[in-house]
Every structure is written in structure tokens, then in C-alpha cells.
Amino acid sequence: MGLFGPSPPIDREEFEWLLACFAWIDRTLGAKDRADGFVPELVLPTDPDLLKASTAPQLFEVVKRKAGLEHWECRLEKGEARREPVDIGLVGGFTQSSNVLGTFSLEGNTPVVCYDPALLRNPDALIATFAHELAHLLIYTLGMPPGGETLEEHATDCMAVYLGFGVFLANDARNFSQFSEAGMHGWSSEASGYLSENALVTALVLFERHFDKEECGADALKDYLRPVHRKADRYLKKRHPHIRDELAGIDLSIWASS
To answer: Over the stretch 237-247, which tens digit does the pLDDT of each residue have?
Structure first.
């Protein structure tokens, strides 16, 4: 098809890194999981176990179980999100801020996940946060991902997608709201996580194709993300029809010094 063939919804370099990161996770965590008989499932907002959970600790335990981590010791604590305004020079127009919705740390040998209790008003965002912070725990046990320390947080998002929570991360990656204050009017944006929406949707499609759950997550995505899903799916079907074999053949050594 040449220039007129399908293209990914993210740039080529980011797509190649996503493939490498998925391959790295599959050869480390995935190999261990398969030996234990665990295969990640695609977790959706309609999951009955998630819907039954009425408190943050209950939700955390469900996320742990879905991720295959129910036997891992991990303490959950309430915290407070840190909001960092970003000046992009558009007075009265578009501003951005980032939310730190959760943190992962170690106290001695005990992993501690801290979350913003305000997220209880948005359970799907809380699920995405728990999945990301639990992915931190796994990254910590596996070592540096492709690209090294500078891409560790991005790899953590990718790990959360690999664990089955791609729909939640993609839907919660960016939230827009209108604001009016001190004579300024416009829109504000709060970003969660590190990978872009398009990259998270592309990673979700990688998950679906790798685990034979094709297009299962499309209907659960926000409306404007569904065309991104279709584009990523068309591209992978055309250009990477044997994704499982391709991931197994990626040379990860080229990313070691990135």
C-alpha cells in the first residue's frame, strides 16, 4: 500500500518503543505468569466485582486480584494529590495542570500505595490509579524497562495496560473542564499518567491482539477514543498480523543504552 497504507495513531518512534516495552514485559512478568497459569484478562468498567466494591480498600483488593497480585503484601493509605499548574502562555484560553493521583513507595520491605481520597467520587479514575501504582511494584521487581530510567513511568503505564486495565487508563488520561476565574475564561485540562491517550489506546489494542481479545475494549472507551482504537487495530492487522511472534523476536539490547 506504500504511502497510502494504514498508519499508527502515534509516531513511529513511540510505536516502536511500545512494542519493545510489551516484549520486555512479556518476557519477564509474562513468562512468570504463564508458568503459574495466570493470563491477564481485559478488565472493563462493567466488571461485577468492581461494581460491588463500595470502599477504596475493597476496590484495591479487586484490582490486585484482577492483576494476579492478590497474594502480594501491599499497604494502602490515603494521601493528597499534588497539582502542578503549567503556564503555556494562553491567557484566557487553554491551561494545563497535572495531577499526582497516587504514589508508590517502600517502607522497609513493605510496598505502600497512597491515593487521593477525592478519587472516591470517580471510581474509574481510582481503578486506573491503583493499576498504575501496582504496576510500579512489578516494575520495581523486574528492573529497568527499554529506554531506561527516563521511561520508567511510561513503562509503568504500559505495564498497567498489560495487566488488563488499558480501558481505565485511556479513559482517565485526560479530563477537560470549563473554568472562569479572576476575569479569565477557558478550558482546563488535568492529565493523569504518563503515556498519551493515543499511546494508551494503541497499547490496549496490542493487549487485545496479543491475548486474543480483539476489539473487546472498544465499546468501553470514550466516544472520541474509539476512532483511535479503530486506526490502531487496522494498522496492527495490516502491518503486524503476527504480533505475538513479532514481540518474541524483538532485540531488546538496542534499547539498553537509550
So the answer is: 999 999 999 99
- Provide DSSP, 142-197: H---TT-GGGHHHHHHHHHIIIIIHHHHHHHSEEEEEEEETTEEEEEEEE-SSS-H
- Distance in angstroms (rounded) separating the CA atoms of residues 215 and 206: 10
Contact between 122 and 116 under an 8 Å Cβ cutoff? The reply is: no
- Beta-carbon contacts of 16 under 8 Å, excluding residues fewer than 6 positions away, are none
Asked whether 125 and 192 are in contact (CB, 8 A), the reply is yes
In a domain, 2, yes or no: no
Longest dimension (CA), the chain: 60
258 within some domain: no
Q: How many domains does the chain have?
A: 1
Reported as type and span, the H/E element at residue 106 is strand 102-107
pTM to 2 decimals? 0.85
Nearest 5°: CA angle at 153, between 151 and 155?
A: 70
Residue 249's CB is within 10 A of a number of other CB atoms, namely 9
Backbone angles phi, psi at 86, to 5 degrees: -120, 120
Per the domain annotation, does 85 fall within a domain? yes
* pLDDT tens track for 162-209: 999 999 999 998 754 444 455 444 444 455 667 899 999 999 999 999
* Sequence-separated (6 or more) residues with CB below 8 Å from residue 142: 25, 28, 29
Instruction: Kindly state whether residue 122 falls inside one of the protein's structural domains.
Output: yes
